[in-house]
Amino acid sequence: MTAARFQPLRDIHDIEELERVPLEERLLSWDVNDWIRHGFEIAPEKVALRFIADGDPETPAEVMTYAELKRRTTQAANLFHSLGVGPNDAVLYLLPTTPHLYTVMLGSLAVGVSCCVNWMLEPSHWVGLIKSSGAKVVVALGPTPDYEIWEKLETIRAEIPSDVAILSVQTLGGAALEQSDFDILSARQPSDRLLFDRKAKRSDTAAYVHSGGTTGSPKLVKLTHQGFSYKFWANTLVMAHTADDVIFSDYPMFHIAGFFGRGIMAIADGMEIVIPSPSGARDKRFIENYWKFVEKFRITILSGVPTTLAQLSKNPPKGADLSSLRPYGVTGSTAFPAEVARQLESICGVRMLASYGATEYTQNVAQPPRDGDPRYGSAGLRLPYTEIKIVELDDNGRISRECGTDQIGLVVVRGPSVTPGYMDEGANEGILLPDGWFNSGDLGRIDSDGFLWITGRAKDVIIRGGHNIDPTVIEETLLKHPEVVLAAAVSKPDSYAGELPIAYVQLIPNAKSSADELQTFAQANSPERAAAPKEIILVEKMPLTDVGKPAKVQLRLDAAKRAFNEALADVANGGNVSVEMVSDPKSGNRAVVRIAGVSASARQEIEGRVQEKMRYYATPYEIAWREA
């Protein structure tokens, strides 16, 4: 199917028109595996995966066709079945992005529940995830230069239940471990048929996926065959995907945007997937050669987290042929600065659509229309058959009223892709609301044209370059220090990463520790480098809410004020610059840049400098001129 055969998506009326047909009549199946088999059969001899091991576009790529991927997937599913995996059992894997990850992912979906885990976590967290997922099989990268996955796994062997089979994968230069080698054991299985019968029901769990978190011990979200099946159709529609598309697999595959968007959806649509490096966008060599990759492999879809896209906007292509790119791309973050979107559009002709979603929604639930105004700064329109409301909750956590047009309130979501809950049932309290509504923890408004605008977060998650960091991980680490009495981790705006984690700390009386010493302590004791705070701010007394908790709304405003004062300190040629954060009825929070002591003739130049500094932040701002 070509993109031209998709009906236009321009406004909310086009979404409502689609909903005149019952969703059941639009879907191929409610079973994820039927969609994947469909993708296998679109063009069996077409390239499914191209794998480059080192981020260099000149390195010869390892190639796998759809026919070969289907054969290897079948063998993997049969192997897992032989090891006791059934429809309700998980296969958990600790793998960087390689072709092996795809065969393990697809094979585990065919036989049971797929669970891709962050291989960069500390092994103590792996134990909890293995146990909570009920995994029957663990697949991990074997001993490999520059990786320590297998070595870390060995340190927790005694804590893993004895009935869990552990398999090794060798794909990046290490020697095979014959007794556990995935390839050796898979090769003994038939590749032309499955040795079991399975037809998934729409309510069956298909995967356990991290709750976005790449630090600490993230919650596992249950995602269903219904949710994935609906999103195969919906995301193919909103982006007009076809089998002619070529997409990078450069997101972490333990993140929903990797697992779904660059994983099973791309396979179901029969796309060609280019793996530019086992580390994806974390590989600096790949990012340095990004536009060369686009030209060489004729990439059609520009996508990435705001960090990656901001870096690309500052490093425009130098003569590369970008004619393969679609006129629109997507980023999975509403914190994507509008100025970066405009800059990317100017250098490569691609409109970046900033979607809104979460792991709990099986990726995105709102996105700007591909054929309409993207309204940079908004999260776009709800997906067909998905409901989004802005509400207020009462003291019992129930919806008390629906907010009016442009009124800021709590964002709640309901639809076929919303999770039935977390593996940890205790985490569902206050999240799963009556009548199927999901409490996002985000604040937002919906305008008169149906566009969603996210104005803040009621929840405290810190989004650093697309990675979601649970602030409690930082706080618990700091509270282990003997002189720390209170710790509150919040986000600080950053022109590159979007947000950085920082922490406000109150010490015990007569403490001797400095901020630098505490930062060193946190870095040494954090479960992952990304969770270490970039700055420690010592406070004499922690600001608290009425119920005695750190007042994080106040702290986030203070952090933003500090960030913008630092960024703008030198823009006024000796004039005085100060930034205040104020509440805004539409944008949530707004920066007021107060500038004094400059002549009227210099204001235009200084305004340009402020604009250049602030263009890489998502926070709206205004300039207030004052006399000296």
Q: Topology of this protein?
A:
Blueprint (H helix, E strand, L loop, with lengths): L11 H7 L13 H11 L4 E5 L10 E4 H17 L7 E5 L4 H13 L1 E4 L6 H11 L1 E7 L7 H6 L10 E5 L12 H5 L18 E6 L9 E5 H15 L6 E3 L7 H13 L3 E4 L8 H5 L1 H8 L8 H9 L13 E4 L6 H11 L2 E4 L1 E3 L4 E5 L13 E2 L4 E7 L5 E4 L6 E6 L6 E2 L15 E9 L5 E6 L4 E3 L2 E3 L1 H9 L4 E11 L3 E10 L7 H11 L9 E4 L13 H16 L8 E9 L3 E9 L6 H12 L6 E6 L2
Parallel strand pairs: 1-10, 3-4, 3-5, 4-7, 5-6, 9-10, 11-12, 25-26, 28-29
Antiparallel strand pairs: 1-2, 7-8, 8-19, 13-14, 14-15, 16-17, 16-18, 18-20, 20-21, 22-23, 24-25, 27-28
Description of the molecule:
- It is a single chain.
- The protein folds into three domains: 3-426, ANL, N-terminal domain (Rossmann fold, 3-Layer(aba) Sandwich), CATH 3.40.50.12780; 462-555, ANL, C-terminal domain (GMP Synthetase, Chain A, domain 3); 568-626, 2-Layer Sandwich (GMP Synthetase, Chain A, domain 3), CATH 3.30.300.
- Helix 6 links the parallel strand 5 and strand 6 (165-169).
- The strands form eight sheets. It has a seven-stranded mixed β-sheet, sandwiched between helices.
- It is globular and about 80 Å long.
- The chain is built from 17 helices and 29 strands.
- By secondary structure, it is of the alpha/beta class.
- The protein starts with 11 loop residues before the first helix and ends with a strand.
- The longest helix has 17 residues, at 66-82.
Please bin the fraction of helical residues: 25-40%
Using the coordinates shown, work out and report the CATH topology of the largest domain. Rossmann fold
CATH superfamily of the largest domain: ANL, N-terminal domain
Compute the CA-based radius of gyration. 25 Å
Separation of termini? 64 Å
Number of domains: 3
What low-confidence regions span 5 or more consecutive residues with pLDDT below 50?
212-216
Biggest β-sheet description: 7 strands, mixed
Counting DSSP E segments of at least 2 residues, the number of strands comes to: 29
Q: State the name of the first-level CATH class of the largest domain.
A: Alpha Beta
- Look at the structure and give the mean pLDDT: 91
What spatial order of strands do you see in the largest sheet? 6-5-3-4-7-8-19
Structural class: alpha/beta
Count the DSSP helices: 17
Please identify, by name, the CATH architecture of the largest domain. Answer: 3-Layer(aba) Sandwich
Strand content: 15-25%
Net shape: globular
